Amino acid sequence: MRVMAPDRGILKLAVRVLITVLVGGCAPQISGSDSDDADLASAGRYDGRWFAVVPAQGGCNFSSQLTIDVHGRFITGAAINPQGRFPLNGTIHQTGDCNFRIGDFPGTIRFSNDRFTAEYANNCGVRHAEGSKVTSSSAGRSL
Questions:
Q1: Spatial separation of the C-alpha atoms in residues 66 and 45, rounded to whole Å
Q2: DSSP assignment of 8-27
Q3: What does the alpha-carbon distance between residue 83 and residue 89 come to, in Å, rounded to a whole number?
Q4: For the domain that residue 16 is a member of, what is the CATH number?
């Protein structure tokens, strides 16, 4: 009996699905192309923890905090405000652009060097955040 090796594309898909499940529901774009490998490899330059204090804006008369953890192509984290803690997750591309969700609300992030900007919505309107990568010298702040 001859045993055939599994198709490389199927293996890549299986690994991505497993990562998606382990990360908690992030929805990676799965096309199976070699460009996805380049996307995965270069996304790692943003790895680490990122943080922003979001001032009161529009209908939101309170400030909040965004804590974002980047691991390769995936982001996880939370928005924390007086109404509670709201998990976020999404995917980052090699350009530094990221699509994410906080519950049912979509958002975008643009990572560049050690800074980021985020645009997202919540139940009281559109929010804008500017933050930075957490370094060992800033690790003492409350996250």
A1: 20
A2: HHHHHHHHHHHHHHHHTS--
A3: 19
A4: 2.40.128
How far apart CA 9 and CA 80 sit, in angstroms, is 39
| Count: domains in the chain | 1
Q: What value does the mean pLDDT take over residues 37-55?
A: 78
Distance from the first to the final alpha carbon of the chain: 58
Q: What's the rounded Cα separation, in Å, for the pair 46 and 72?
A: 7
Which residue is it, tokens 């958002």?
107
Boundaries of domain holding 120: 8-133
Q: Which positions ≥6 away from 39 have C-beta within 8 Å?
A: 73, 93, 94
Report yes or no on 83 lying in a domain. yes
Residue 45 lies in a domain: yes
What residues contact 54, with CB distance under 8 A and at least 6 apart? 63, 64, 65, 66, 79, 81, 127, 128, 129
pLDDT digits (tens, 9 = 90+) for 107-125: 999 999 999 999 999 888 8
Q: What DSSP designation does 6 have?
A: P
> Using CA atoms, how far apart are residues 9 and 85, in angstroms rounded to an integer?
38
pLDDT of residue 142: 46
Instruction: Identify whether 61 is part of a domain.
Output: yes
